[in-house]
Amino acid sequence: MKFSCSIIALVTFLTNLFTITMANEVTVASEKQILVAHDKNRSLRGLRGELSYQGRICSSESEGVFRCNTANTQCQPDQWDYWLLHLEGNTTYTIEVDRISCNLDPALFVSEGFGTRLPTACYFNAFSPELGLIGFANDNDPKPAFCLGLVPSPFDDPKFVVVPHASGPFTLGVVNYASDPLSCRVATGFRYKIKISPRPSCA
After folding, report:
1. What are the structural domains of the chain?
2. What is the CB-side half-sphere exposure of residue 128 using CA atoms within 13 A?
3. Neighbour tally for 27: CB within 10 Å
């Protein structure tokens, strides 16, 4: 069963000044063998329980891509894409994740704060001691016109509105839900675009 939800949340929290450092993951041969032998859908960060960000969004549009083997991983936090945002207090933000690959079915959630450990449970109930889940969105925004009538092009895209009470860091999670893995090409994966209006602060 798929869940649909668009939530307007008011968030109040105090933040300290952060210095955020992100490094590439280092994998030794034995760890790669474990990944292949036990679960091809799990990443190294999942084995270590670490949350790593795809990057920080400081523009109105950004693009991301999922690997083909991440379809239907709405309850596997180590397969989600995490993006860091800095949002200003008392400002209404509209956040969309639009499919570029028509065979992608994206969902999203927004949490307050900056995390270092992966959340648990499914995306619509993602628990983390570091991140406060604000809400999630799924299938509440029409898919792009160029995907209409195409098969496969499952369900619709997510849109979320949030009005923070205070400025600070937020985490956007993008989830590969009921996508079609059989039509996914390894060379391109599942591509998506994040649209945020107004654009996040780079402070």
Report:
1. 8-12+49-197 (2.60.120.380)
2. 26
3. 13
